[in-house]
UniProtKB/TrEMBL annotation:
InterPro entries from the UniProt entry: LPLAT_7/PORCN-like (IPR049941), MBOAT_fam (IPR004299)
Organism lineage: Eukaryota, Metazoa, Chordata, Craniata, Vertebrata
Membrane association type: Multi-pass membrane protein
UniProt keyword annotations, A-Z: Acyltransferase, Endoplasmic reticulum, Membrane, Transferase, Transmembrane, Transmembrane helix
Species this protein is from: Huso huso (Beluga)
Residue stretches spanning the membrane: 12-32, 44-68, 410-428
Cellular localisation: Endoplasmic reticulum membrane
Pfam families the record matches: MBOAT
UniProt keyword annotation of Transmembrane helix present: yes
Protein's UniProt name: Ghrelin O-acyltransferase-like
Residues making up the signal peptide according to the UniProt record: none
Length: 433
């Protein structure tokens, strides 16, 4: 069976090119600020206009999908009291986003058509939802003072400009990581007073990493295409290996795009986290891609906390910490809603939630029996394989999205691995609190 339908989902080359094209403008922003060529208002305008132009170029007329909620969110900050701001911001933003996700599903499943520009707009809208709700939470919890946004009978543009700039600034428009409003404004204000060290070396190093990841993706694609059979149709153990390989290809795609988005922020001076013990600058204050931890961990729970880390932290703050009943299930259910509520996404995230809870129980009860040496090595090896295959199953169902893909995954041997952990939930009691 032809595998082209799977690799259509990896068609992110245009977005990668747009991100790469924006790197010189990030460097230009950094050097203009460092040399004192931009006033504070000019810096906010530079970042905002850059986001506006990037939206127009990448999304065409669908840029309104992002621009309308960005402007309306800033108006909410002005008109709604801080006690009710988060509720209004959350409901309006998720309502707007859900309507576009439903339109995408209608066009995909009923009309059998897709528009890359609309997909880019909805993807950017999801990132905007993170920034809007993060900002509204900061204001509602008293961590951020909005100040006076009026001058006489008129709205003060200069006081609202930082919020609009934050919601649209171009280094974060098409990709994470999520940056808090306080971090954003402190970076903008200090970039010419106490600027971070030159990020050129860090950006160059991460460019090399992106090229390396793209090379790994190419090799994986070649290896998968050598097998003429479709892994989704294979019913033997070789099919399990092929499905794991395709899921690894998805992960490499995410890693590559996360690192690229991270270096775009770094080029503008965002993400500086101080100096290490040897005096070298650390540029990972804004990072989603801890590739080593993700690929070596033997705990599904640790993978969930590390995968797309700033988004995981946002979900923890937005849902997990505020939900009294079944916070883990509620967090993954909301993640499915935020991603678009495709059948595969709902199944994949709920399966992921179940396996995370089972993972806690497994490691809690097995830990006392694990000593050192061969026993510990065997324990980590088996749980690493289990983690890899469970995550592969979840990723494939989430990324392929359709109900037919869920059925094909469930008919493959790889479905036995999450099923094993689901049985743990039935027969192994919850760990003691």
């Amino acid at each position: 069976t032809n595998m082209d339908f799977i690799f259509l989902l990896f068609d992110v080359h245009s977005l990668i090119l747009y991100q790469c094209a924006a790197i010189p403008f990030s460097f230009l922003f950094y050097y203009l600020c460092r040399n004192g060529c931009l006033s504070l208002i000019s810096r906010y305008i530079y970042l905002m206009l850059g986001g506006f132009l990037l939206a127009v170029v990448t999304m065409g007329p669908y840029c309104l999908v992002v621009l309308i909620p960005a402007v309306s969110s800033v108006l909410l900050i002005h008109f709604v009291s801080s006690q009710h701001l988060h509720t209004w911001a959350f409901l309006t933003q998720m309502g707007w986003q859900t309507s576009w996700h439903l339109l995408l599903q209608y066009r995909e499943y009923q009309l059998q058509e897709g528009d890359p520009r609309l997909l880019a707009a909805v993807s950017s809208l999801m990132l905007l939802t993170q920034r809007v709700t993060s900002l509204s939470l900061d204001i509602q919890e008293g961590k951020l003072k909005t100040g006076d946004t009026r001058t006489g009978n008129y709205i003060s543009f200069s006081s609202l400009l930082p919020y609009l700039s934050y919601l649209l600034y171009f280094p974060a428009l098409l990709g994470g990581p999520l940056c808090s409003f306080r971090t954003f404004t402190s970076c903008v204000k200090l970039c010419n007073v106490n600027p971070p060290p030159n990020p050129q070396w860090t950006v160059s190093r991460k460019c090399v990493l992106v090229l390396g990841l793209e090379g790994v993706k190419t090799l994986l694609t070649i290896c998968i295409n050598i097998h003429t059979e479709d892994p989704m149709q294979s019913r033997d153990l070789k099919g399990v290996l092929l499905i794991w390989s395709v899921s690894l290809l998805y992960k490499m795609t995410y890693y590559s795009y996360w690192v690229l988005s991270e270096l775009l922020n770094n080029a503008a001076g965002f993400g500086f986290g101080g100096y290490d013990s040897k005096g070298f600058p650390i540029w990972n204050a804004l990072s989603d891609a801890d590739i080593w931890t993700l690929e070596t961990t033997h705990k599904i729970s640790q993978f969930a906390r590390t995968w797309n880390k700033t988004t995981a932290d946002w979900l923890r703050r937005l849902v997990f910490e505020k939900c009294k009943a079944c916070p883990l299930l509620a967090t993954f259910a909301f993640s499915a809603w935020w991603h678009g509520l495709h059948p595969g996404q709902v199944f994949g995230f709920l399966c992921w939630a179940a396996t995370v809870e089972a993972d806690y129980r497994v490691h809690y009860y097995l830990r006392p029996y694990v000593g050192s040496g061969v026993t510990r090595l065997l324990y980590k090896s088996l749980t690493w394989v289990q983690t890899q295959l469970v995550i592969a199953c979840c990723i494939m169902t989430v990324e392929l999205r359709s109900l037919s893909s869920v059925r094909m995954i469930c008919q493959s041997y790889i479905s036995l691995f999450p099923l094993l952990y689901c049985l743990v939930l039935v027969f192994v009691p919850r760990k003691h609190q």
